Amino acid sequence: MHSVKDGIISTNELEQITTVNDAAQRFLQIPREELIGRQMSHVTSVKELIGPEDFQNKIVQIGNLKLNTNKTSISQGNNKVGNVITFQDITEIQKIEQKYRLENETKGFTAKNYFHNIVGSSLIIQRTIEQAKKFALSDSTVLILGQTGTGKELFAQSIHNHSKRKSFPFLAINCAALPEALLESELFGYEDGAFTGASKKGKKGLFEIAHNGTIFLDEINSISPYFQARLLRVLQEKEVVRIGGNRVIPVNIRVIAASNEDLFNLVKANKFRPDLYYRINVLQLGLPSLRDRSEDIFPLTQQFLLHQNSELYHKLGPFLEHLCQELQKYQFPGNVRELYNILERFSVLCGLSDNFNLDTANQILADCMQQTSPINRNTKVEFNLQDDYKDTMVEAERAVP
Predict the structure, then answer these.
(1) What is the DSSP string of 24-58?
(2) To bridge 223 with a disulfide, which of 58, 227, 229, 376 should be the other Cys (CB 3.0-4.6 Å)?
(3) How far apart are CA 279 and CA 235, in angstroms?
(4) Looking at residue 13, what DSSP letter applies?
(5) Would you tell me the crossing angle of helices 358-372 and 335-352 to the nearest 10 degrees?
């Protein structure tokens, strides 16, 4: 009895205390000799546990502790001969639950990147990193704004790993990648029979799994007004209700949201709720485009090629700087992600080339950049309409470059 962490008290049929283990004595802060033989009604801290009925999981406050208590009657034949009352510290239960979540439910939900993984020595990226580090020390919601390919998730993971939540789960979800119904069930979870095809056991949502950790909502600008209202409630109340359920589940999470559009313009166009915008726009982090930090193209290229193909990297050594100067002439609408695509294609084609020299590398790089350039869909072709349909088609074909 004295070796367990649960507090245990037993009484006889007259409600007199007959047994007190070490944990119960510690919870009640009363010496054992002062408890043995006393009526339960004479011990102020346990008065609310007195009564004829048994109970399970009753929460009581004793001093500064919140305890989960259970009471079970002991009978001999048809006669009640006493009770056994057990106490569990709520904080210990929470630690066990959190350990279970970390070891079982949250496997794989980790942030792999840190601030030292962000490549770049330009003043603008270093300032952005310093600002993000300061944001990481707070627990407020962060809104990351940046074009596609600027590294929004890389910064979100780094913020998580620099925060006090780093030992807890990091979950990322792309809001634009899932249909709304599926996104709702993924984030909020669902109860048994909530919809056709639902698991018979129900399912925890990502908000529940991310308890005490961070959830990253990428492309938050793509969610519908209905889902915006549900998300707003989670941020305000810190609680969720599963689909098909009626039980309120408290969650302690930090939200990092990201958008590749200016959310304020969406608010003005009535496409994004202003109350949600102001709720998530507490700490705003703007990520620079690659063309705004073109001096980082050289270290980014070095890092990628060394990791992708170290043999090619050493071959390119004498004229790598020249190739990076050629890369700096390109605008990179897809930012770092597009740079990596070009470099991956470049490394594959260079590996297939028999005669490898500066001219060959220049030509391959030029071809790679040309292949990745987006088609200008805004180009207009003008031509005169003819009286005859066939003559008009001939005129149109002449006008197309």
Answers:
(1) HHHHHTS-HHHHTT-BGGG-GGGGGG-SSS-EEEE
(2) 227
(3) 8
(4) T
(5) 140
List, as own/partner pairs, every contact residues 312-321 make where C-beta atoms lie below 8 angstroms and the sequence separation is at least 24, other chains included: 312/347, 312/350, 312/351, 315/350, 315/356, 316/350, 316/361, 319/358, 319/361
What is the per-residue pLDDT for 376? 46
The set of residues, in sequence order, having a beta carbon less than 8 Å from that of 94 and lying 6+ positions away, is none
Please state the length of the chain: 401
Give the model's pLDDT for residue 347: 87
DSSP string spanning 175-229?
TTTS-HHHHHHHHHEE-TTSSTT--TT-EE-HHHHTTTSEEEEETGGGS-HHHHH
Q: Could you read off the pLDDT of 108-119 as tens digits, one per residue?
A: 678 899 999 999
Locus of tokens 């002449």: 398
pLDDT in tens, 196-221: 555 566 788 889 888 899 999 999 99
- Residue pair 102/129 in contact (Cβ under 8 Å)? The answer is no
Single out the residue of 96, 54, 55, 95 nearest to residue 75, CA to CA.
54
Rounded Cα distance, 370 and 358, in Å: 18
**pLDDT for 215:** 94
**Tokens (6 digits) for 272:** 């994004």
Asked whether the beta carbons of 183 and 202 are under 8 A apart, the reply is: no
